[in-house]
Amino acid sequence: xxxxxxxxxxxxxxxxxxxxxxxxxxxxxxxxxxxxxxxxxxxxxxxxxxxxxxxxxxxxxxxxxxxxxxxxxxxxxxxxxxxxxxxxxxxxxxxxxxxxxxxxxxxxxxxxxxxxxxxxxxxxxxxxxxxxxxxxxxxxxxxxxxxxxxxxxxxxxxxxxxxxxxxxxxxxxxxxxxxxxxxxxxxxxxxxxxxxxxxxxxxxxxxxxxxxxxxxxxxxxxxxxxxxxxxxxxxxxxxxxxxxxxxxxxxxxxxxxxxxxxxxxxxxxxxxxxxxxxxxxxxxxxxxxxxxxxxxxxxxxxxxxxxxxxxxxxxxxxxxxxxxxxxxxxxxxxxxxxxxxxx
Length: 343
What we know:
about 350 residues, 27 strands
């Protein structure tokens, strides 16, 4: 009986000390470029087949791509441990490798294979990561050990946007690295335009890595068709993917208000339309949407504009409201209907 107890304790010690020694991978991802106009198209690799318990790997990529998920934690191909507040009671119960085959939209020159390494634990959780190999039309391996794979066509030329070793690069159709710099983020936002992140700053390059928008912005947020709010040294502006500057980065804040944009500068507010055109100068104390109307406040009085910036009423009301689809203003404590001219 004593020998049996000693054996059981020795086995428990091996399980609790050795099982957590599992690899810790990085996250995959990246936005997939959608199918563009003209001779341009783009996609993530889309999977056929699959297996069970697959929390890593790539989402479907036929047509418009989404977020691709690359490595999660765990697996036998690295170092590190499975961290848990109760790690001493959580141990590995099994592993499996799930192979997969992927194709790209509108492309018969490339495909990809993947292996997803999954580790299962005693508490019912699992960790996984995926590595991709890009193949040519004959099945020859072009690039191996990728954690994110995207493909695009521009001007009838195929390009690969791949992440290896935690960094993105631009590759030619035959798997040769084109780009000289390494990026932590890369995805297509327009034909021949890639949003990239390097040294914690955003910018835009083309498929030959020519800089289009300088890589200097702390934020680069899409707010419409080829329209982006940027942040530089604490101030906001608006550009497109070809570096046309709608508003230089000199505003305290730019926020989207339905199909318009409110610009804040020196404590005052203005308005831009959906195309980045200034329709109200930043001279108002407050701007808000009231139904289909733009309502502004200046010197404690309210007035009404339409979405094109045309003044519909004088700025002289104490308050403005919509009552039973009628625009009303309050003057001397009385609500009266505001006559709105026909558009």
